[in-house]
Structure formats: structure tokens, C-alpha cells
Design a protein that fits this description.
Layout: H1 3-12, H2 30-35, E1 40-44, E2 47-50, E3 55-58, H3 61-64, H4 73-85, H5 97-109, E4 116-120, H6 123-140, E5 148-152, H7 161-166, H8 170-175, E6 184-187, H9 193-196, H10 212-220, E7 225-230, H11 246-257, E8 260-264, H12 278-282, E9 288-291, E10 303-307, H13 309-317, H14 336-352, H15 354-360, H16 363-372, E11 380-386, E12 389-394, H17 403-414, E13 417-418, E14 420-422, E15 425-428, H18 436-452
Parallel strand pairs: 3-13, 5-6, 5-7, 7-8, 8-9
Antiparallel strand pairs: 1-2, 2-3, 4-10, 9-10, 11-12, 12-15, 14-15
Helix pairs in contact: 4-14, 5-14, 6-13, 16-18, 17-18
The structure holds pyridoxal-5'-phosphate.
């Protein structure tokens, strides 16, 4: 059965499964999946439809990315129109209008003067690109000794060698140790169950953890450090909300020593926290910002790196005229289909006020109440929330970390809600078009699921 048939059939009910053997699935327990497949065959608005004909409420916006909900007609149309008009154009030494239009729209919602946009195809590529921009910037200014990066424990910055090096996800680092970048150090993560458990929104405790950057600067010397990279809110390692004042401190220390501050907003960007970007929510402006996912509602792979004007100017004006100033780019940078989807998605976000809806309509307060209402559900160890994100951490079973969360995820799917899990934390981040009743449905389903797992 080809994809069209799967999709068509999915609209009407159950479909037969294709042969599962050939595909090596990413970040998946392949054997478990193939023994009991969970196949999504179509999607509309807040819902997926499964291969067995069930409607599944999307509690995670696909993978933190379908912020405007599924199947938006304007995006579908824009992609189809673009494919007909021009399928592909080379991005090196050539341009096409839609990529300039897309960059212009993004520059308009950027924090501060991060108004220069570099297109990639994913969050991982955005991170690699940001790290390279940092190196190129310092070199262009005659500070080529600044080659070191500071990441953070429990950070996730995708799967490229740059990203796993600055990231602090242990499972990701364990196997690939041999390929790690040299010259990387890490800040401590910002989570403490003792001081922060069941905080609503930003924890009061923990701003002082940013002071560790001072220690690393004393250890390595500022003249060697290119950039600090953090997720303003760590998503993939279990929703770790920054303590009040923490990001301000990081900003101040970076500015003091001429170190670039990179915010990885692949998850926190495009309205997830009630402002276009976390930078605006926390009122802390980085020097470079990496994004992807919801930039075009995830309709075609796309990433976008936002860069301060001064950094662009230093790199571009620092090169001889006629020379390629930044030796970097992808065959699919600014791909016409991805750009068409970006323009359409950004227009929807602007027209429907989606990038601020979560705060404007008090959805975040409703969400917080619903999530923290699960405090007395079985197995719950901690609940963390911010904007339209929540992490519900469960007590781990002895000798079986992650198993209880996996079973909860399976149970929720069976009960008609798609959630995510990382370690023993259930992570939630629904599309920003969610209705209050659907928030209740997510909470009720989780309570039922938690009551049924051992
Ligand atoms: C903060 C952050 N950075 C980077 C990435 C990697 O993005 P991608 O999977 O598109 O490469 C992710 C993915 O979830 C992420 O959460």
C-alpha cells in the first residue's frame, strides 16, 4: 500500500499495515514498535487518526512543532503552488523571492536586533550553524583564539556532532564519545527536586547556578571562549524551567567577557511560551538564536538561525569583496517548498495572534491548573510547567528507569491521546489552537493512564 492509499484509507477507518522490515526508525525501540505498531495515517486540527481508525488527540504538537494544528489549508496550498511554480532553486550565489520574504517575516518577530536569518533544514543543523557563526565572528574580529563552547548538563541540541558535544544528554553522549568536539565544557543543569518540586512556572530557587559560568571563565580564560549555548527552557531532557533571574545572570556574564550567548529555541520558539520566543518572555536577548520545528508549522523540514546585526556585519564586512564571507550552507537552505510553508505559517500565526495566544487568553494559567491537578495521581514525583508545556515526572521503578513513563505513553495512546516521554517524565506541548476542553481531556486521560500502570 503506498502512502496515498494509506492516507486516503486513514480518513475512512482502519488500514492494512505495510511491510515494516526495511525501515530503521529514529529514536525508537524498533523491535517493540514492529511487534505492536502505532501508525498515524492522517491528521487534521488537533487530531491524528491511527491505522486502526481511532481519533488521537495530539498532546505534543507532533514533536513540539505543529503549533498551528494539522492540515492548515493555506500551508498545503502554498506548498502545492510553489511546487508547481518552481520545485527547487540553488541557494548558493542564486536567490529566489520567497526565501527573502520568509526571512523578512521572521526578522519582524525577532527579539532585539537578531534580524539576520540563516536557513537550515533542522534544529540540529541550526545548532551546528550557530556554533560555526560564533567561530567565524570571533575570527573576523581578530579574536580567533575564542574556539571553546560552553553547554549545559541536561541540554539537548540535536544530534549533530556539534550538538551532542555541547548537549548534556547522557544517553546521547555515551555511545558517540569518540566523535565529540574538543574544547567544550558544561554548566550545571538548573534542576533540583529538593528546591523546586511542584513549582508553578519559573522556580524561585537556582539563579545562582549561572555563577558557575564565572568559574569556567576563570578556568579557561575568556579569550578562549566563543559562546555559551543553552535552551532557555530545557525541553527534551524533561522540561526544566529556568529559575527566576538565571538567564539574566548568564546574559550579564557573557556580555562582561565578550562571549556570545546562544539560545536554542527549537522548542521554545514560535509562541510556545506565550510570546514569539522565550527571549521575549524572559526579557533576555541572546546574540544568536536557533529555531526549527514550528517555524513553518513543520510542514516541510526547515530550521532558521537568527543572528544579531553586528555579528552579520562583522563576518560579512570582514571578508574581501567578491569572496564568499561565510563558508557554510546546505543544498536545501531556503528550499522553495519550505519557504512557501514558512510564509504561510507565519501569516497564520500573525493573523490568528497565535504567537501570543497562550498568554493573552490565559491558556497558560488554565494549563497550569490542569497539570498541577495531577499532583495526587499515582506515581507522580514532580510537575513542571511553563507556557503551553508541561513535564510530569514519575517515580522510576527500581532497576527499570523509563519503563513506567513508556507504559503511560502507551496507555494514553490506547485511550486516544498522544503524549511523549523522556526518561520517566511525560512531556506535553499541544498545538497552540487547543481548546480548554481538550486540556481537560489530556489531564483526565493521564490520570486514567497513571491509575492503570503499575
Ligand atoms: C532544543 C533543541 N535543539 C535542537 C533539536 C534538534 O532538532 P532536529 O530534530 O530538528 O534536528 C531539538 C529537537 O527536539 C531541540 O529540542
Amino acid at each position: 500500500m503506498d502512502q496515498t492509499e494509506l492516507t486516503r484509507a486513514g480518513r475512512h477507518g482502519a488500514v492494512d499495515l505495510p511491510n515494516l522490515d526495511a525501515l530503521w526508525m529514529p529514536f525508537t525501540a524498533n523491535r517493540d514498535f514492529k511487534a505492536a505498531p502505532r501508525m498515524l495515517v492522517s491528521a487534521q486540527g488537533m487530531h491524528y487518526r491511527s491505522h486502526d481508525g481511532r481519533e488521537i488527540l495530539d498532546g505534543v504538537a507532533g514533536l513540539w512543532c505543529v503549533n498551528a494544528g494539522h492540515g492548515r489549508e493555506e500551508i498545503v496550498e502554498a506548498i502545492a503552488r510553489q511546487a508547481r511554480e518552481m520545485d527547487y532553486a540553488p541557494p548558493f550565489q542564486m536567490g529566489h523571492p520567497v526565501q527573502f520574504e520568509a526571512a523578512d517575516l521572521l526578522a519582524k518577530i525577532a527579539p532585539g536586533d537578531l534580524t539576520k536569518i540563516f536557513f537550515t533544514n533542522s534544529g540540529s543543523e541550526s545548532v551546528d550553524t550557530a556554533l560555526k557563526i560564533a567561530l567565524a565572528y570571533h575570527r573576523a574580529r581578530g579574536e580567533g583564539t575564542r574556539t571553546m563552547f560552553i553547554g549545559r548538563e541536561r541540554g539537548y541540541h540535536g544530534v549533530g556532532f556539534g550538538g551532542i558535544s555541547v548537549g548534556g544528554m547522557v544517553a546521547n553522549r555515551k555511545v558517540f564519545r569518540g566523535g565529540m568536539l574538543p574544547n567544550v565544557d558544561h554548566l550545571p543543569h538548573t534542576y533540583s527536586a529538593e528546591h523546586q518540586a511542584f513549582s508553578r512556572g519559573q522556580p524561585e530557587w537556582g539563579a545562582h547556578l549561572a555563577d558557575d559560568l564565572e568559574r569556567l571563565v576563570q578556568l579557561h580564560d575568556a579569550s578562549n571562549i566563543a559562546a555559551v549555548i543553552v535552551e532557555p527552557m530545557a525541553g527534551s531532557t524533561g522540561v526544566l524551567v529556568p529559575p527566576k533571574g538565571y538567564l539574566d545572570k548568564l546574559r550579564a556574564i557573557c556580555s562582561k567577557y565578550g562571549i556570545l550567548l546562544i539560545f536554542d529555541e527549537v522548542i521554545s520558539g514560535y509562541g510556545r511560551l506565550g510570546t514569539p520566543f522565550a527571549a521575549q518572555r524572559f526579557k533576555v536577548t541572546p546574540d544568536i538564536m536557533t529555531t526549527a520545528k514550528a517555524v513553518n508549522n513543520a510542514a516541510v523540514p526547515l530550521g532558521a538561525v537568527f543572528v544579531r546585526e553586528g555579528i552579520y556585519d562583522a563576518v560579512v564586512n570582514g571578508a574581501p569583496s567578491g569572496a564568499v564571507e561565510f563558508f557554510h550552507g546546505y543544498t536545501y537552505s531556503g528550499h522553495p517548498l519550505a519557504m512557501a510553508a514558512a510564509v504561510a505559517a507565519q501569516n497564520i500565526y500573525a493573523r490568528d495572534g497565535l504567537l501570543t495566544r497562550v498568554a493573552r487568553e490565559g491558556l497558560d494559567a488554565y494549563w497550569e491548573e490542569a497539570m498541577h491537578g495531577l499532583r495526587d495521581a499515582p506515581h507522580v514525583k514532580d510537575i513542571r510547567n511553563l507556557g503551553l508545556v508541561a513535564g510530569i515526572e514519575l517515580h522510576s521503578r527500581p532497576e527499570a528507569a523509563g519503563k513506567r513513563a513508556f507504559e503511560t505513553f502507551l496507555k494514553c495512546y490506547e485511550l486516544g491521546v498522544l503524549v511523549r516521554y523522556t526518561g520517566d517524565t511525560i512531556a506535553l506541548s499541544p498545538p497552540l489552537i487547543i481548546k480548554r476542553g481538550q486540556i481537560d481531556q489530556i489531564a483526565d486521560t493521564l490520570r486514567r493512564a497513571l491509575s492503570s500502570v503499575q
